[in-house]
Every structure is written in C-alpha cells, then in structure tokens.
Amino acid sequence: PGFQDDNDESSPGWLTARLASNGQELWRKRLVMPPENGPVVGRLPGRSDPSVVQPCGYSGIGSSSAIYAFDALTGQEQWTFQGPKQEDSWQAGIEEGIFMRFTGHTSQPELVTPPWSAPLIDARGTVYVGSQNGYLYALRDDDMDGKVEGAEEVTYTNTHATTLGTSSPAIVPGMCLIAHANNVFAIGLPDQVPLSA
After folding, report:
1. Mind telling me which Gene3D superfamilies this protein's record contains (predicted)?
2. Stated pTM of the model
3. Domain assignment of residue 195, yes or no
C-alpha cells in the first residue's frame, strides 16, 4: 500500500479501460491517489451504462482515501466518496489480533493492508466495501449529485478490523460477509436485497 508520505504529484494512480478483444485503450484517468485494490464493474442507480468503481488511498496515520465511480465506456466521473482518515497508529483490529495471528501462524502478526477492500456491487447498484477503519460501507449516489454523502447514501457497520488484501464482500441471501484481519464478519441484510438483476 501507499503511505501518506508518498502523497505528492509524483505518486498518482491511473485507471485505464481497454477493449477485451484487442487491448486497445478506451480511456485513461489520472487519480490523485493510487488505486489500492481492484475495481468492480456493474450498474449503479440511475445509470444505463455500466460503471467502474475504484477504491484509492494511502495507509498510515492521517492517510486519505476515497472511492470513485466512472462510466465504464467513457471514463466520465460519476461520483466520489471521501473515505475516513486512519486515526490510530494501527489499522482497526491489527493490534488486538497480533497474539492470535502469531500463535495461530495464520498470517503476519503485524501487517498493513490497503485502505479499502475490493468493492462489490449488488443488483440494486449498492456498492459494498470494507475499510481500514474497520467499517463495512454501503454506498449509493441516489440523488446523482456526484457526491456520496449523508445518512441516505452512506450506511455502515463496525466489523472492528481492517479488511485483508484483495478480498471483497460477498452477498448470500439475507447476509453480507467480509473477511477481515481477525476473522470473517457477517451482517444481516433485508430480504428484499436482490443478489442479481
């Protein structure tokens, strides 16, 4: 992962879309922060064409993070969610789980993860993504103003630990699961959340 000290003009990120058939570049966007996990492509609310959602940011105290949505065909920015900054020396759950990871030999006792998990888009266009602050977010730009903010568009639950590597949340009937630094966390979802369109 990138660290806050790297946040300067020489460390932007890039998101590039290419045709699968021949590799021809469709578009390329310069991001102010490095993409620190894989994107996801799907349909977002109020959009007829597919969108690509890309988490970006840095790890470390005071580090910035954001999630961007772009039109997958043109690269036009659709919305931004300004993520929380890391406030403590450790990402959520890392310090608490050191002994468990050390004695269980399951992973590095001390680790630094990307600021975001890989995202997931459900059939309604809600984006689910885990964060280094231990929260699992559900994001929607319902008013299509280009900013995902406020209680109507941002909901979250505390999983008490940062997510691991390139894993993304997973949805099964009535439940959302996410792997994090210390175990797998599950939250209940309303039955009306469809898994696919």
Report:
1. YVTN repeat-like/Quinoprotein amine dehydrogenase
2. 0.80
3. no
